[in-house]
Amino acid sequence: MSTPELSYEEAREQLIEVVRQLESGNVALSQSMELWERGEKLAGICEEWLTSARQRIEQAKPVDGRNPASH
User: Fold this and answer.
1) What is the average pLDDT score of the chain?
2) Which pLDDT belongs to residue 43?
3) Burial class (CB in 10 A: 0-12, 13-18, 19+), 42
4) Cystine design at 31: which of 9, 27, 54, 68 (Cβ 3.0–4.6 Å)?
5) Which among 53, 50, 48 is positioned nearest to 2, based on CA atoms?
6) Residue 65 CA to its chain's centroid (Å)
7) Mean pLDDT of all residues in 16-28
8) DSSP structural state of residue 67
């Protein structure tokens, strides 16, 4: 997995703005499609960050009561 070009927080904030614009109903269909595509990309970036965080948490959990780093 490559490192996303945006931080989780940046991607989330941009995604919130995309959703706000789409929900406003004040954008043309072509712009709505562009916003939707951007939103899909931003959601993917957020998912990459969350998946990576989950993996790091799982790796840090103790195994049989021991710290996995001590193996």
Assistant:
1) 89
2) 97
3) buried
4) 27
5) 48
6) 32
7) 96
8) -
The pLDDT assigned to 21 comes to 96
CA distance 44 to 58: 21
Torsions phi, psi for 62 (to 5 deg):
-65, 145
**pLDDT of res. 62:** 84
Counting every residue written for the chain, the total comes to 71
**Mean pLDDT calculated for residue range 23-47:** 96
Q: Report the b/e string of 6-28 with b at 16+ CB within 10 A.
A: bebeebbebbeebeebbeeeeee
What distances in angstroms separate CA 53 from CA 2, 12, 40, 56, 58, one per listed residue? Answer: 14, 15, 20, 5, 9
The Cβ of residue 48 has, within 10 Å, a number of other Cβ atoms equal to: 17
The CA distance from 39 to 19, in Å, is 7
